[in-house]
Amino acid sequence: MKLQKNDDLAKRPPNSTARTVPMSIERVLAMNPPAPVVYIVDDDNGMRTSLAWLLESVGVKSEGFASAAEFLRAFDVNKPACLVLDVRMPEVSGFEVQSELNRRGATLPIIFVSGHGDIPMSVRALQHGAIDFVEKPYNSQQMLERVQRAIKLATQRHAKDQRKRELRERVESLTAREKEVLRGVIEGKGSKRIAADLSISVKTVDVHRASIKEKLGAASIAALVRDVLEVWSPPGDERA
């Protein structure tokens, strides 16, 4: 198999091929993440107001919505948040809201509340990703503890989501050739095999590998493969 003779890339030091990836707004925000907001979705104005006051008393920010439709219009999937959601509401139920959020890929923790809850209802909520199910009327202190747990979880999930978004952005910054080399790395191929597949020199492959590691901020090839598989599948790959 004939290799490219004018392979200037192979003569360059690894760092010369790596471009600095501009710091994204997501990365800036990740360094100073905003405090999670607690969404309160309940058609009972009294319940919304009392919970908002309770949260405000301990310095927790909340936003109230009288209907599911109103909440879904305002909801920002990129904003750290948790949700206190009434099960029974006119037009759109709490379970339907949960399904829509799952469809959107939202990871915010959900605490369901209901004045008519039962075991099958709570099981359904938890099976679809809710973290808690509370019956009305609830104990204020217990509700605060549950919301604080949800806020902590929301912060963790948001940080993970931000990391994935940044990594996806970095992968997209790779050149077409670097993505070809990355595909070979993911498939477990060594530099010689990748070089043969792409008709380039082994040294060029190694330069690309070093560039990919630097651009993606990977400590090792094993870490690179693990992280990349969370956010990217090569074109034509069954995982795509």
UniProtKB/TrEMBL annotation:
**Name of this protein:** Two component LuxR family transcriptional regulator
Using the record's annotation, list all stretches that form the Response regulatory domain: 37-151
A Pfam family it matches = GerE
Q: Which domain of life is it from?
A: Bacteria
List this protein's GO terms for biological process: phosphorelay signal transduction system; regulation of DNA-templated transcription
4-aspartylphosphate: residues bearing it = 86
Residue ranges constituting the HTH luxR-type domain according to the UniProt record: 167-232
InterPro entries in the cross-refs: CheY-like_superfamily, Sig_transdc_resp-reg_C-effctor, Sig_transdc_resp-reg_receiver, Tscrpt_reg_LuxR_C, WH-like_DNA-bd_sf
Molecular function terms from GO:
DNA binding
Where along the sequence do coiled-coil regions lie?
144-177
Write down the SMART domains for this protein, in alphabetical order.
HTH_LUXR (SM00421), REC (SM00448)
- What does the UniProt keyword field contain? Coiled coil, DNA-binding, Phosphoprotein, Transcription, Transcription regulation, Two-component regulatory system
Lineage here is: Bacteria, Pseudomonadati, Pseudomonadota, Betaproteobacteria, Burkholderiales
**SUPFAM superfamilies noted in UniProt:** C-terminal effector domain of the bipartite response regulators, CheY-like
